Amino acid sequence: xxxxxxxxxxxxxxxxxxxxxxxxxxxxxxxxxxxxxxxxxxxxxxxxxxxxxxxxxxxxxxxxxxxxxxxxxxxxxxxxxxxxxxxxxxxxxxxxxxxxxxxxxxxxxxxxxxxxxxxxxxxxxxxxxxxxxxxxxxxxxxxxxxxxxxxxxxxxxxxxxxxxxxxxxxxxxxxxxxxxxxxxxxxxxxxxxxxxxxxxxxxxxxxxxxxxxxxxxxxxxxxxxxxxxxxxxxxxxxxxxxxxxxxxxxxxxxxxxxxxxxxxxxxxxxxxxxxxxxxxxxxxxxxxxxxxxxxxxxxxxxxxxxxxxxxxxxxxxx
Amino acid sequence: xxxxxxxxxxxxxxxxxxxxxxxxxxxxxxxxxxxxxxxxxxxxxxxxxxxxxxxxxxxxxxxxxxxxxxxxxxxxxxxxxxxxxxxxxxxxxxxxxxxxxxxxxxxxxxxxxxxxxxxxxxxxxxxxxxxxxxxxxxxxxxxxxxxxxxxxxxxxxxxxxxxxxxxxxxxxxxxxxxxxxxxxxxxxxxxxxxxxxxxxxxxxxxxxxxxxxxxxxxxxxxxxxxxxxxxxxxxxxxxxxxxxxxxxxxxxxxxxxxxxxx
Lengths: 318, 262
Description:
The complex is a heterodimer of chains A (318) and B (262).
Chain A: E1 5-14, E2 17-27, E3 32-36, H1 43-51, E4 58-63, E5 66-67, E6 78-81, H2 93-104, H3 109-119, H4 135-147, E7 153-157, H5 165-182, E8 185-190, H6 193-199, E9 202-207, E10 210-215, H7 217-222, H8 227-233, E11 237-239, E12 242-244, E13 250-252, E14 261-271, E15 276-282, E16 287-292, E17 304-308, E18 315-316
Parallel strand pairs in A: 3-8, 3-9, 6-7, 7-8
Antiparallel strand pairs in A: 1-2, 1-4, 4-5, 9-10, 11-12, 12-18, 13-17, 14-15, 14-17, 15-16
Helix pairs in contact in A: 2-3, 2-4, 3-4
Chain B: H1 2-16, E1 19-20, E2 26-27, H2 33-38, H3 41-73, H4 79-87, H5 94-105, H6 110-117, H7 131-155, H8 159-167, H9 172-183, H10 185-200, H11 204-210, H12 217-225, H13 231-261
Helix pairs in contact in B: 1-13, 3-7, 3-10, 5-11, 7-10, 7-11, 8-9, 10-13, 12-13
């Protein structure tokens, strides 16, 4: 079985800068994948090249083993959910969902579209126009519109970015469930590491147009390949070449024996409900965050403490 | 505002119910004869021709103007240049622009001269002094009135809509038919109104390019106030013209509002 999507040495140049720099990735069918990275890292450009809206300057895009690099969007068995949803304003939700089916000349398009709307729980809003729908509802219509075509690959461009936080969490679960239910491969672009980690089977971390690491959420979080990945996937305290996650960072009143440690002054202690974040400053001024259990909430501002950690939890980079 | 609009309107209204004086001007008695005269087949033909020519002009402006506006909206850096070119004719006067067509279309004009020299025809073609010439003149002059609102509407079209349509399987022609045209419908309405109403009341173009052969409502009104010295009749005709325009505008406004509310 060939991978559902393969990118071979993709390069995209715009006048003045290289947006995507020699990207090669391979995705197996049926998974939920993310392209994660900061703004401007090239993830959206990469997604657009997969969808056919941009052409790479070099390299190839393969779908199910076939080269599709030159193919137009309407020729590819890929569907995109746009960040702005791009619902047709002059059509109702139902007609929006029917759009692709109508283009293909499918006769039972209405029943298929109704089923797709049921899948996203919007059956009762089928005769509303986009102007009459909320952000979350629009997104679900956009999703139904793409899913009803049963593409091999579904591309989602920061689909949760415009939603408010509570809705976002709910949609994460729904998207994940939808992917499992339909079996369609999802490829998700986001700058939110929490989203990428919680939803994906594998994450491709991008920076400056390059792939820094492609691995499972555990791999990219616990065994980051580069400093960038370590720092992007979660908070991290740097001690020279070693990085330690706040949850592995410990505080002690007395200098611990035999462990690497640094003296620091407590700056503040934040109660986050389920844990405490203690912000401290090292002797050289660098700041560290230690995440400690609620029960140990006894460090006060100005106190001198010893930062230490288990060397097994260190992340070392050259 | 009210003064400059309401007062002349009131005067015209009043005149339309009076009788013509022997040497022009108006006098008593009050009558509705002017309006009943308009029902004469001669004048109905003029009304009909005006509606027909205005409608055709609007249709041609839409046919030519839409692709032009679409082209300009996609032109990237050259957009402003193209817009300036569309507006360039407005730097000369309406009269001069219309006269220019006389020089192009008349028997000894540019078109006939070229065709005769190239031996395509032996005798000059009668290109002037007919409805076709009037149509040409009107479309030429009012095309920018269609292009500009159409361009404004197309500019606001979200490019993601076009990408989404392509993504869902629509090829370029289908995208045009199923997305661009319906979404830019307000532009069509605005452009059509801005062309139809002035065309309905046109008198300079039919006068110059139509000779006496292509009489429209505007010519009728002008004629009555000058040569014929029948101000009341002219007033009645111009009220009919105003009424036709107002009704059309009202109908279009209501349908647009209705569509936007749906």
